[in-house]
Amino acid sequence: MKAAVLPAYNEDLQILEDLELEGPKANEIKVKVAASGVCHSDLSILQGRLPVMPPVILGHEGAGIVEEVGEGVTRFKPGDHVVISWVPQCGTCYTCEHGQPQLCETGAMVAVTAGMLDGTYRFTRDGEPIRQMQATGTFSEYTVVPEISAVKIDDDMPLDKAALIGCGVLTGVGAAVNVANVQKGDTVAVIGCGGVGLNAIQGARIAGAERIFAVDTAASKLDLAKEFGATDLIDASSGDPVMAVKEQTGIGTLGMPRGVDVTLEVVGFAETLKQAIGMTRAGGKTVFVGAPQLGATLELDIFMDLFAMQKIITGAFYGGSDVNRDVPKLVDLYKSGELKLDELVSRRIKLEDVNEAFRAIEKGEVARSVIIYD
Ligand code: CU
Ligand code: ZN
Q1: Could you tell me if 201 and 72 are in contact, meaning their C-beta atoms sit under 8 angstroms apart?
Q2: How far is ligand 1, taken at its centre, from the CA of residue 97, in Å?
Q3: Which of 107, 122, 252, 271 is the most exposed place for a label (fewest CB within 10 A)?
Q4: Average pLDDT for residues 167-176, to the nearest whole number?
Q5: Counting ligands in written order, which one lies closest to the CA of residue 41?
Q6: Listed residues 279, 296, 315: the one ending a domain
Q7: How many angstroms separate the alpha carbon of residue 22 from the centre of ligand 1?
Q8: Do both 208 and 338 map to the same domain?
């Protein structure tokens, strides 16, 4: 059984062939992984910026085919095609029942253990447990996940495209649609046009936004942003992006440029978070989508931005997604041609090329590298 394991922070992933994978226990399924995207969050774990401890199998954006089901599994049978969700959603806890399954109290367990819901592990090497990020671990030919970490999809949906839905698409499109609740005719700014940012842009487009400002420092990403629906491209490498956006949004209170209805920040740095608040209009929404570093803080002008201008500033965790509702919806949007997935795939690679894929992310070269398994 072959998988890519992070042995220690700031080291390359090791491709190991001698891992053992135990079969699925109660309410778990074994999945033959067909494809996995390589996401910035995988790199953040490698760099020690997110609280997941090595040794761990990374990869959390995958799709595959159910191989075996554990006792009590009712929603799947061998042969089913599934998208893997990095937030298990139980449907019955307090937050699930309050329409916030992205914050599932049962599922939150896997963020802490990086194992199964019962705190145990299915992967081992020489008898030592190997963790799997968010109970997913899609940088592996096979994985075992909780039943509530998978969503069945139609057999005719290509699995390499379906994989992307599992993180980047749910996170980006969901932030625009579920969390920002972008409305027809809205003006929207998206700061950061990588894999998730491009999805925030297409989410805003699908929701009917009239103008979409794409903000990035890389010209190649701005070109892609246009393809995904951006109407205005703002090069943040020269000049102040806040003014560049605001001066195109009309005149608001006290003769000042108004700002956009919605800003989606998809970088996670204090500087870009401040820019996001700055370009949002009075009464508008600023949504933080990018994962900041653990423990990061932000200074706020609470008189102007929160009190006088009543901006709504919120995070968006996993795009505020209900995976059982949203994954099938996104599959349908792809089939109808509205959701672009083919264009997200910059490179199709083998598991052995995963470290190279991280370097490409660092250089800002790709929207997504996708690992294809045989
Ligand atoms: Cu991700
Ligand atoms: Zn729940």
Answers
A1: no
A2: 25
A3: 271
A4: 98
A5: 1
A6: 315
A7: 25
A8: no
